[in-house]
Description:
The structure is a homodimer.
Chain A: E1 9-10, E2 20-22, H1 46-49, H2 55-62, E3 68-70, H3 73-79, E4 87-89, H4 91-97, E5 102-107, H5 118-130, E6 135-140, H6 144-156, E7 159-165, H7 166-171, H8 173-181, E8 185-189, H9 195-203, H10 211-223, E9 228-230, H11 237-257, E10 263-267, H12 272-286, E11 293-299, H13 304-307, E12 309-314, E13 323-328, H14 350-357, E14 362-366, H15 368-382, H16 388-407, E15 412-417, H17 426-432
Amino acid sequence: MTTKNFPQRYFLPEEEQPKSWLNIRAFMKNKPAPMLHPGTKQPITAADLEPVFCKACIGQELDETTEFIPIPDGILEFYRAYRPAPLIRAYFLEKALGTPAEIYYKHEGTNTSGSHKLNSAAAQAFYAKQDGLTGLTTETGAGQWGSAMAMACAFYGLDLTVYMVKVSAEQKPYRKALIETYGAELIPSPSSTTECGKKILEKDPNTSGSLGCAISEAIEKAVHTPKCRYVLGSVLNHVLLHQSIIGLECKIAFDKYGIKPDIIIGCAGGGSNLGGLIAPFAAEKLQGKSDARLIAVEPSSCPSLTEGKFDYDFGDTAQTTPLIKMYTLGCDFIPSSSHVGGLRYHGMNSTISQLYHDKILEARTAKQTEVFEAAVKFAKIEGILPAPESSHAIKIAIDEAMECKRSGEKKTILFGLTGTGYFDMSAYMQYNDKSMKD
Amino acid sequence: MTTKNFPQRYFLPEEEQPKSWLNIRAFMKNKPAPMLHPGTKQPITAADLEPVFCKACIGQELDETTEFIPIPDGILEFYRAYRPAPLIRAYFLEKALGTPAEIYYKHEGTNTSGSHKLNSAAAQAFYAKQDGLTGLTTETGAGQWGSAMAMACAFYGLDLTVYMVKVSAEQKPYRKALIETYGAELIPSPSSTTECGKKILEKDPNTSGSLGCAISEAIEKAVHTPKCRYVLGSVLNHVLLHQSIIGLECKIAFDKYGIKPDIIIGCAGGGSNLGGLIAPFAAEKLQGKSDARLIAVEPSSCPSLTEGKFDYDFGDTAQTTPLIKMYTLGCDFIPSSSHVGGLRYHGMNSTISQLYHDKILEARTAKQTEVFEAAVKFAKIEGILPAPESSHAIKIAIDEAMECKRSGEKKTILFGLTGTGYFDMSAYMQYNDKSMKD
């Protein structure tokens, strides 16, 4: 096949954009194990989740059989405001590496929130509005998810309270400003607005906060506010479903040009970007129609797939969520604070975990300094400053392309560029002044 | 004509992208007055400029007759790495305003430097490489131009020294980090690396610096470094030429859909974005083929067109540049430091000045707080956080759309969204905490 005519930046025309999401679980013989109620240890029901989540999201969370779920018009409308995300042929990088491999990447960072998170934020805000809710709560660590939710809530006309880990709110004033510009209330966590926040502050008034604590505050606030629910930006299966738009756009474009990727690479924290990117390719593989390699890349500091245990565990450090069967480092695992980015989650989405367990998916780790070395190289050659998270995928994509150079094989590589690093320059400052550690 | 089918975000396919720049001066009966040598007061010659600028740029600066100048392949190659910039139909904004007007905007902020500046940075770096140079110097105030030059020099393999106004380097650590990540040397100005910097530091060791001083340092450094020249990001006519890619992409897309804009609006500091956006539309107007209104928007704090004098003046505060016939507030004019953004220049490009003098172009002013009010409204409705500079155009575009609502006229409005505000959130922080003044 010839792929010479693939433009450097391909944008799917509006009329060809996907109208449905793809539910990977419907293609799996071995379904992910059900979530269990933390009290009864019985499979969770829709009724269990209703005080916390929106109805449509609960339905999607529990749906293991519908292959394609139509995207409501009200969500497609918002998607048109920032999608399609370009599918880019890395001609410059290929040339610089001298590799026979063809490298493509899907750039999800062209919206103001700076990452793929907006794909699920839009859906969750839309469904909240549909349920007649007036407000939402959430937490944010690195800030991408909080920014995305603030944008989506501004668009659909919902109040939003974002509990931002206190140290992040202090270290990332630009993220805080962005979230507030979109009209959300930003509360550094722990705070005195919740009982659990107060308790933590009593114990340690100078605590810098944690994601676990911010989650607990956001859930408490949602449960105690009328017409309000809680939203989460990763880990859950309905989030993966919304993110399938990433892979579907790639698949449609590739099919038009007769391109079949041999290797598909995504970074993995909670698993939402990876699950979205691989969705249609994993479905083909599960149907025996493809033998493409699917690779998850984790930071070596937080290796849940590669070094974790495949078992039931809590989704949060405070042990309040349902139990999820997943690869986990233990819900009390906290990676070294010298490590940056949105990949610091102790566990992994249950579908991704099952695919890894069944060897549909491989996993690799990358060290922080080599990730930033790849990031800066990529920025200079391709002209896009990547998010630290995305740079894990870049690092492994370069490794695979160099392996092709050694072997002479002309493989086709696709990786997910989940976002840009524009609001998160402090990590680059560390790298530039050589104070970054592995 | 029907424009119902215009997609929300239109990307010009690669094969339809412009292959030439448009030189507005070739279409003008009244050419802009020539630049004068500051010593002899005679029209400047190519030889006068050669110690400072690259050869091709000098040729373009002095060329008043060639209508279309081919873009070299080596520049088109880099353009493909971040162009086309989307032309967006503001369906959401139209609906929110309830206006019969059709509103379009050209989004030049989708590249990592965050603005249109990269269009000229790419050209100037390419020509420097072609001249056999090894290094360039420049200055940057707000940081957009410095970021763009750092990216272009990384791509073409040139050393770059950026003199950044000291107070900006301190207030915008993320801009500094971005420029350094792309491998440029960033020197807060004034510095001890130049004679003029030393003199200023002797007088006032605690000075916060100024753009005039940074320009002087960059020129001195270029002139005293072998195989090195100086590059400037606005004001000059070769910069406007490179920026004509903005308007040309709009024109090609509009022609495909049978759209004729009635009003074209751009913010104006030195004039490069405005000149680029209006280029093909001004050419039509100068040929009597169109009566579209062309509107420059200035900050009320720096109203060079609307309140300046049309006369010869220096381009810099240090009075070292050639004399330029332009609308100017006087080369010693310094707008209040409470005002933000890249529109603080005392003068205006000579072509823009002549077009305004000849009433081809209108000019309007906008106050800072009303500009940010428009910016935040736009961000919430359209989902893109605009640069403070671009928001001047947004403010007037909204005014014109509301005028259509009053009159019932269905006009077609195009404005230039020159960039995003991602690296420049401090202004939004001021607006959010209500400490911003007019």
